[in-house]
Amino acid sequence: MKIKEIGELGFIEWVRKNFKIPGKDVIVGIGDDTAVIKDKDGYLLVTKDLLIEDVHFKISFDPFLLGRKSMAVNISDIASMGGEPLYSFLGIGFPKELSWEWIEKFMLGMRDICDKYKVFLIGGDTCSSPKLFISVTLIGKTDKVVLRSSAREGDYIYVTGKLGDSGAGLYILLNNLKSEDSHYKYLIERHLNPTPRVEEGRFLKDIASSMIDLSDGLSIDLHNLCRESRVGALIYGDRIPISDELKKFCAEINEDPFRFALQGGEDYELLFTSSEGLERKIVESIPATLIGRIEKREKGIRILKGGKEENLLRSGWEHF
Amino acid sequence: MKIKEIGELGFIEWVRKNFKIPGKDVIVGIGDDTAVIKDKDGYLLVTKDLLIEDVHFKISFDPFLLGRKSMAVNISDIASMGGEPLYSFLGIGFPKELSWEWIEKFMLGMRDICDKYKVFLIGGDTCSSPKLFISVTLIGKTDKVVLRSSAREGDYIYVTGKLGDSGAGLYILLNNLKSEDSHYKYLIERHLNPTPRVEEGRFLKDIASSMIDLSDGLSIDLHNLCRESRVGALIYGDRIPISDELKKFCAEINEDPFRFALQGGEDYELLFTSSEGLERKIVESIPATLIGRIEKREKGIRILKGGKEENLLRSGWEHF
Question: For the whole model, what pTM was predicted?
Fold first, then answer.
């Protein structure tokens, strides 16, 4: 049997079943993007992401933005728990023939976002590698943690920002579509230069009942949140926030922008839930849109769009 | 300019100069194998190591032992600070066509050492990759930390265990030397299945003045310890502990066992210093050998062997 037949989820499930379960200090362990460990101060948050050449990026991508993004995706994981990012560790395997200019730009991009979010790079490992390989570990802290497993029936569902821009940007890059139009540039920028929602996460730690960041697309991440919380959901499809740039691009390529909004990954917006009565406080404090409601688990995960209700399938990005 | 011209040390130096210096809570940051962060409980220790196919290992190596070793090298880093390893995070990129059987054995090896050292695997990331890529992050704790930068003139220098076995094991593997003799098996085993010295490190945290683990070989690691401590050293070459197996193997291939002991990496023994008067306590409590003495920086780093004194060059493993 090949690993691709087991898949990412099958692998995680195997680890969960076969490795010893940690003590009660570990609030969140295997299977989540961010581990949560209770300590005297509150909670220690630890996340780790891989970025591999020709899997997650091409060496032809802008190294400054790639360096920025390598850290941004980890900062987003900490943000999704309501945490404050603090210390990072960079594991990097360099092809021997890679130019120092490329690496310097990459590191300057990483420094740029570290400085912006007050993250310190304090360790790691370097070596040579046949392909460029990046592994960032980020440690954060919080006094109160928001999990993905605590959504309750009746809670409203929200997202920050707009959805689908990053997926469309990747589509442009992968299909090598050339255009000087500003909406092309905007969508590519949204893919390469995502904004982790740390400030919003810090605001939401005292307000949200559950939270996750959108790395795999709304469909998959909502399914993950609902599965962990043992609830169902109804999404008001027409309320999903979509940028004018994405609408314009989709009109040109004759594609439904909802496909990018639901299935395109890497928006790194926050998907969260909160109990009834806080709607005004939320939308007046942060750039968030109410897009649905948590229901009983038996109702499944559905989407209401143009007056019709249908099941929202779990689909989007899966590795292997 | 290529990255190989900058080198690993050049890269680390660049990062040290160009990234913001963290606050005083970070006792050890960039440039060390393990970062040390002061917290309310004592010290948080964080280490991260990369293992890359065709750089650090071949896919033909025993996957169980490789899984074990991927974690062992990190446990050794925590041990070298006097720490207790606690929580680990595995980033792993799998070639799509790799068999599940291989991965299962790898993971069982990792579980074996995790269980032995009471380390919990609580997170990470997986994805597909052109080559097998392994990145382990390990978090540990200690109430008292032993740094590599605090050796003092007059301290004695010690190592745990025997040196050079691992380097000889690697030599056998890389040169594809075939033998059923037990000393071949022993040396290969010492390379693939190193023993992190956690218990010894815990004992030494209250006794050692400085400590480092031997990953790059005695020459390089002693140079690193002396540079960070701003001291010189004299090594009593004839006292360097060498196993009978290594002596036998070296006699057969007509090689000096000191070459492996000084330059062969990956022994994962502890190199430490301690003030005069504790010699008996140390050698009666743990398997350690006194091999030298810390001197003034101006005296350099020298080795006395067969009555002759010479400079001990910094040489051994360097990446790129």
Answer: 0.92
Q: pLDDT tens for residues B150-205?
A: 999 999 999 999 999 999 999 998 898 988 899 999 999 999 999 999 999 999 99
- Burial of residue A55, with CB atoms counted within 10 A of its CB: 0-12 exposed, 13-18 middle, 19 or more buried: middle
Quick one: tokens of B114? 């995790």
Question: How many other CB atoms are there within 10 angstroms of residue A116's CB atom?
Answer: 15
CA-wise closest residue to A87 among A109, A120, A123? A120
B132 to chain A, closest Cα gap in Å? 10
pLDDT, tens only, A236-292: 999 999 999 999 999 999 999 999 999 988 999 999 999 999 999 999 999 999 999
- Asked if the ipTM is above 0.95, the reply is no
Give residue A135's pLDDT: 96
Q: How far apart are CA A258 and CA A271, in angstroms?
A: 16
Give yes or no for a contact between B45 and B142, defined as CB atoms under 8 angstroms apart. yes
- The token duo for B174 is 């890389």
Six-digit token string for B187: 């040396």
Residue B85, strand partner residues: B140
Q: For residue B215, list chain A residues with Cβ-Cβ distance below 8 A.
A: none
B59 touching chain A per CB within 8 A: no
A180 token code pair: 């000087």
Strand stretches in B24-172, DSSP E? 26-28, 34-39, 42-52, 84-94, 120-128, 133-142, 156-160
Shortest distance, CA A306 to any CA of chain B (angstroms): 37
